[in-house]
Write a structure and sequence with these properties.
- Two copies of one chain form a homodimer.
- Helices cover 52% and strands 12% of the residues of chain A.
- Chain A has a five-stranded parallel β-sheet, sandwiched between helices. Chain A has a five-stranded parallel β-sheet with strand order 7-8-6-9-10, sandwiched between helices.
- Chain A folds into two domains: 238 residues, P-loop containing nucleotide triphosphate hydrolases (Rossmann fold, 3-Layer(aba) Sandwich), CATH 3.40.50; 234 residues, Rossmann fold (3-Layer(aba) Sandwich).
- The first copy, chain A, has 20 helices and ten strands.
- The longest helix of chain A has 26 residues.
- Chain A is α/β, with parallel strands linked by helices and 491 residues long.
- The radius of gyration of chain A is 27 Å and the shape is elongated.
- At the A-B interface, α1, α2, β2, α12 and β7 of A face α1, α2, β2, α12 and β7 of B.
């Protein structure tokens, strides 16, 4: 795989001087065109130590307009980063549409190093690479152009390079003990890297290997490749994102929601007693949660007027205000729209010992966005896998994840709408849109059915709650949350 | 000061039950009105341990719609926070317009504690309180409503409270050794707190003391006070923000910019040589900067076409791409507009060992916003003090701050505009607006003159650079940056 990058590619100074001025002009032009494009560009600089990753990043900052790109290097995670799922920091640094992000020391670095000199085995590596593939596919499916560049040096050339850097007083600081330690493992690095490249080269996001020996060749190849890829992506993105014909949106006659027993209810006296007991239990558990540094994510979905707000209010009464955050999902902000749709949920992932309660969530993609046609069919179809991957990462990092669908009958919903219209301080909660949504009840029901069947996983099961009685629903919600925390912590 | 909060205020259960339902309804109503208001609300909960700060936060989360407020508690700073100026974390958590932020353990906590049981003396406390006043005044001037509540308990009552909590198995966890340690210092806390309250009670943001003994009295007083303050603020904010008649904007016949010697130039050969030497020097210094963990902030202001971009490009060529970030100041995003105008600059303050280069900056407030009338006269006038305070905090935290004004003659500017129109890849840099701005040259010159005279402080002096020759300017910029870093680090 790397043989073609050991052929001794080089450019003379004249060749370089002839090609570079034009290249720079074109890079600036394409960057300006990119500014209005609906996708971001990620440039990954990986490869052998000393093959020019850092120099390439510097060069790109010089050739492009540095004001409209960001360079990220991920070393050891900071405290904020270490406290969250591994990909949180990568998500947070994804570039906005129309901009370029350059990544050195990225999501490939740690999987490769820990396989070669850490204690990861082949299976661990495979698992890590699967995460990489999922992550990149999500971004690419969303339109992102991911340019992955691997800078290569032969073993002999790397040794020569390190020695040369070391012998010069001006550059010796750049060679660390770790570089020599890595060099001793050159052959293993080569094998593992080759596997990583093979396993993560996709049609959407292929790897390009660049010979790193000659600085001029490397620079021009880098620039021309990036230029070409951006030009191509700009030329084809309209085609790629051409929307499919609207979804027929056929309603399913029988859904899993039909199995929810809506007759469930609870007596007022029992309710009062149970509520207090469960709030006490949750309060005690919340202190353990803080002590043990566990993160809790609770998701509420369900019909309008099913009582999500009321259930949340009963839950937070048991919690310390410093410990939780309720995130209501409204229209995304400008910054949120400029990122992948999952970005705005990733950013609120709680720190250890904290609760984040999402009042509606990432499932909007496969519910309202699907039914109302805000998401193209391809978009909501692939969202199931994207969501499963996201949730798997949450759970793998030790987070307790609980997902509720609050269910009720169309008749009960109508009754509550009418009630809202009559009580002054509830009138703001009801409008013509709510009635319009009712007309699509069957479509929403089908979408919810698909959602449950596609995303109720072993890691992150759905809890369908009968909300025909608000009291019953509140008790079930509290009980489920307590049980889930207890299952994670022990009693 | 606290005597009136030791009178034994209390409410019976009946009184409580009579007042609370109406209060809750009104709080929800006012919160909805607030959503469209152009200002945020900050509620500070401070006071004696055990007097009900935490309970009050919980109560407000229950009474208000918790989805539209945020509760923040500042304990020991996280790594990210500790690496930046002290107020960075408070700035980052200021609420957006239309929302409520609740603060426990806020900017008052550490100044008071370190005066009572730390090693701060009266002078240190005075300095801290001055920072508090500046911070709150900035927010209040921007429209924010700051409600500052102090929960008080008499010494006897605090002792009783701590003992009672301790004796109950359910609540004993809430009493720590630290609480008893603080209790031993009750009298000193009282004196220091009184001073803090006196020194920071302003007409805009007064303190309100609430007796914490009786939970019902405390709750109702809290809720009613907050309701009243928000109602009042909503009723008067239109009046308060009524814009003054437009600024006459008289141009000054003679400005400090006239003293810049525009005849300065440098020979091509000298330039090449100097540039290389200075880039080498900066590169070496940048490694020291990283090693020693110093933050560098560089600000570029100046006339259109004065060569800011070119000077920045020559500077970053000497730096590692992982180490710097260039922030171009364009139109603020939605999230940025929802905060105080300084918020969007605070958020990019670099971590230790990094450079942030602002291509235009917070000085826009007193330049373009002043001249074009985007900022009211009161706004840009007070901005000088706000900016000085911001910069003082930067420098106090150890940051190297360098500010450039690139100056040139109107004739040279015109020549460069024409040149831009003729070179294809520069055409995007020039438009009718650039010509329009030229007509206000004198007004901009006066604004720049005021800016320099108001904000060239000992901590953060301006460097006026003759940019009539681009080469000369680039050399001066590099030299000034190197000197400033060297002055901070030693050679």
């Amino acid at each position: 795989m790397f043989e073609t990058a050991e052929l001794g590619h080089a450019l003379t100074k004249d060749e370089y001087n002839e090609r570079v001025p034009r290249l720079r002009e074109e890079l600036l032009t394409i960057q300006r065109q990119l500014a209005d494009a609906p996708f971001p560009v990620l440039i990954l600089l990986n490869g052998v130590d000393g093959a020019g990753k850092g120099e390439s990043a510097n060069l790109l900052n010089e050739w492009f307009d540095a004001r409209y790109l960001e360079t990220h290097a991920f070393d050891a995670p900071s405290q904020d980063e270490a406290e969250r799922p591994r990909y949180w920091r990568y998500w947070m640094k994804t570039p906005q549409r129309g901009t370029i992000g350059i990544y050195i020391g990225n999501w490939y670095t740690q999987p490769i190093i820990s396989r070669v000199i850490g204690d990861a085995n082949d299976e661990d590596l495979a698992k890590q690479l699967a995460h990489v593939r999922n992550f990149e596919r999500m971004l690419a499916d969303d339109g992102a152009l991911i340019i992955k560049l691997w800078f290569h040096l032969s073993k002999r050339e790397q040794k020569r390079r390190l020695k040369k850097l070391e012998s010069n007083k001006e550059t010796s600081w750049r060679v660390s003990k770790q570089d020599w330690k890595h060099f001793k493992h050159y052959d293993e690095f080569r094998i593992v890297s080759e596997r990583a490249l093979r396993d993560t080269s996709s049609g959407q996001s292929p790897w390009t290997i660049i010979e790193g020996t000659d600085a001029r060749y490397r620079a021009v190849t880098l620039g021309e490749h990036i230029l070409e890829r951006i030009q191509e992506h700009l030329a084809t993105h309209a085609e790629r994102t051409k929307s499919a014909p609207p979804d027929p949106n056929v309603a399913d006659p029988l859904t899993i929601l039909d199995r929810v027993d809506l007759s469930k209810d609870i007596e007022k006296a029992d309710y009062d007693h149970e509520l207090e007991r469960l709030q006490g239990r949750l309060n005690k558990l919340s202190r353990k949660v803080r002590k043990k540094g566990v993160s809790i994510v609770i998701v509420f979905e369900g019909w309008d007027a099913a009582g999500k707000g009321g259930a949340i209010r009963r839950m937070i009464r048991a919690l310390d205000a410093r410990q939780f955050r309720v995130i209501p999902i409204a229209a995304p902000t400008q910054e949120e729209r400029a990122h992948h749709y999952l970005w705005r949920f990733w950013r609120h992932i709680p720190r250890p010992g904290r609760f984040t309660i999402y009042d509606r969530s990432w499932y909007g993609r496969v519910l309202v966005e699907r039914v109302e046609g805000f998401a193209a069919r391809a978009e909501w179809r692939r969202a199931y896998a994207e969501i499963n991957d996201f949730e798997e990462q949450l759970v793998e990092s030790g987070t307790v994840l609980v997902k509720f669908w609050l269910h009720l009958s169309p008749e009960e919903q109508l009754r509550r709408f009418k009630e809202r219209e009559e009580i002054p301080y509830k009138q703001h909660k009801i409008g013509p849109e709510d009635y319009r949504n009712r007309e699509k009840w069957n479509l929403y029901e089908s979408a919810a059915d698909d959602m449950v069947s596609q995303t109720s996983t072993e890691h992150a099961p759905w809890t369908l709650v009968s909300a025909e009685s608000k009291q019953w629903a509140r008790i079930q919600v509290l009980k489920t949350v307590c049980d889930a925390i207890e299952a994670r912590l022990g009693k």
